Amino acid sequence: MPKPKKRGSNHQRGAGGQPRNVQPFSDEDASIETMSHCSGFSDPASFTEEGPEVDEEGTQEDLEYKLKGFIDLTLDKSAKTRQAALESLKNAFSSKILYEFIMERRMTLTDSIERCIKKGKSDEQCAAAGLACLLCVQMGSGIESEEIFKTLGPVLKKIVCDGTASIQARQACATCLGICCFIVTDDITELYSTMECLENIFTKAYQRDRDTNGVSSTHNTVLHVRALLAWTLLLTICPMNEVKKKIEMHLHKLPSLLSCDDLNMRIAAGETLALLFELARETDADFFYEDMDLLTEKLRALATDGNKHRAKVDKRKQRSVFRDVLRAVEERDFPTEMVKFGPERMYIDCWVKKQTYETFKEILGSGMQYHLQSNDFLRNVFELGPPVMLDAATLKTMKISRFERHLYNSAAFKARTKARSKCRDKRADVGEFF
């Protein structure tokens, strides 16, 4: 009589060496656990009037069981399985706070990330680098995070500087290197060493408009953009004497990147210039830039660019960015932006804060609002104070029904449609014909 199959055998590796199936961390898991783990931080509008009770203890146990399985799968023989596990861990880390769970397994996670970056292929290295960023975001600044960076920092630098590694992996590692260093390092020599590593990458773009054969070389442009943005992030936490040195070194060279064929490089260079001018004027109120007329002429041309060979979407994006950059350079002005998360508001009123916010928003994605509400490290970075705890009575008074939300959204949609119609079709207003 044949033996019965074991339960769960569908998820094990078969005799033929096929990779086991990995059920990814889903949005449903995130939403359920986020509500049960820290309901006081959730957006009141996200709650429904009536809903089933959630077994918080059971949900937390199920989540941790899943995550333990993903951590184990990062050691699997199949590259696809390892990558899927890394992506699932990334989704979990970006959508909720798991400090205690990670604290108990930080060394295991660090070893898995290090192994995937060293031995994995391009996609796996990118996923591992992204997970390393989120691991440091979860841990915040502290001794444990410093230990993680001491292990991963040399590996990341090696990949970034390795010309034989894939461009995608080098891009991901450059971003990861900048973010992790920003979060964890209190050692000024390590900060300067990391910035020097990134400088060695993006400064190649200064003289790299065309190669020796006169053919446009854009293969490494995205890598240069990533290195420049990571370097700019680290510059925001440098001592003022070091900031002055970097401004003197790069302020006259960065305008050359405004003529690059790549839109992202032009935008990165423009925003970096605005940030450098902001920092320079903080250190010296009478700061004077010799080539101001030439620079403002370039910025104005980009802010009003009408070249037909460029896509309309690219032109709109470029004009929007460089209008703000031009105002920053000429008028020392910054268009304040407001970010809403739950019952709180945060105002982005300078280029330093904008650069920091955009960096963390890119790695956290849709989890940015949740982390702004409940992540102590991010709240400290943006000077938001301790997390706001809301009791059940306060949440109830802030809630609105689905029907009220529907009416509000419908009215807003109608008003928006009318406003857009007037601007979109000018031919509608042609008068009467007699």
TrEMBL record:
Protein family per UniProt:
Belongs to the IFRD family.
- Name the UniProt key words of this record, in alphabetical order: Developmental protein, Differentiation
UniProt-listed PANTHER family: INTERFERON-RELATED DEVELOPMENTAL REGULATOR (PTHR12354), INTERFERON-RELATED DEVELOPMENTAL REGULATOR 1 (PTHR12354:SF6)
Output the superkingdom of the source species: Eukaryota
Instruction: Describe its partners and assembly state.
Output: Interacts with PSIP1/LEDGF.
Name of the protein: Interferon-related developmental regulator 1
Gene symbol here is: Ifrd1
- Which part of the chain is the Interferon-related developmental regulator C-terminal domain? 375-428
